[in-house]
Amino acid sequence: MRDNKQLSETHPLSSLDVWEDDLLQRYPDPESIATAKSTEEYRNYETPGRDSVREFYRLNHQYQTFDFVQQKKAEFLSFDKKEMSIWDAFQFLNQLVDDSDPDTDLDQFQHLLQTSEAIRADGHPDWMVLAGLFHDMGKVLCLFGEPQWAVVGDTFPVGCAWSDKIVYPEFFRDNPDYQNPQYQTRYGVYSPGCGLRQVNLSWGHDEYIYHMMKDYLPEPALYMLRYHSFYAQHREEAYEHLMDEHDHEMFKWVRLFNPYDLYSKNPTPPDWTQLRPYYEELVAKYLPATLKF
Ligand SMILES: [Fe+2]
Ligand SMILES: [Fe+2]
After folding, report:
1. Which residues surround the ion ligand 2 when the cut-off is CB under 5 Å?
2. pTM of the complete model
3. How far is the C-alpha of 292 from the C-alpha of 211, rounded, in Å?
4. What is the pLDDT of residues 53-90, one digit of tens each?
């Protein structure tokens, strides 16, 4: 059993939701700015979780090296850890309970369901609804003992220069890749316009769920899964130089998806018993009976 000190060294966030709450501070909902909440409220950024978010990014930026990403791909993309039915997998994911803020936080499944329901309510294709339902399933990595900084957080390319548009860029100074001149040029190990399929992003729940789903969902859904935390590109456009025409086309879908992830949180949980038949049919339409982890 790890003691508390060790635990806070690898898990500075009291829950994974703290990272997502921080995203909302950085990218507030344009609609609530215009209506209820004042911009002032968003600028008041002295929230208690802030130090832990800083500490989280310090670790993330220090340890996400090019080699680390290759190691994690080798370790997890063989999918030989566990096999579960889809609904058992959601229950498994829900063991990531957040006990820090019982008033406002819903469990992981509720976030997924609210995302997918918001997509469905707007009449988007059913595979996009499914992408909404599964986009954070990769957070089960935490339940396999992975530290938070290797599961969540904004993702970014490794093996080439880091953009200063990435949150807390100063922490990259402590990353061993900073000492490797090959990784410190604009293109690094890649070539201009090579396409994101050639590019390694920092390891986390996005890449993992993309690989889990890649044989089953249409390509725009796969882009949503794979790049939903790549804020440095989908919000900041800092890596256009690595993208090809096809990526640009597909990123329209990633941008369409992002607000459903960020702004669909609602304190009232959807009625699962009523929704269940719809989702059972949807899941059966696209996915096998069990998923490999
Ligand atoms: Fe996510
Ligand atoms: Fe999410």
Report:
1. 136, 261
2. 0.92
3. 10
4. 999 999 999 999 999 999 999 999 999 999 999 999 99
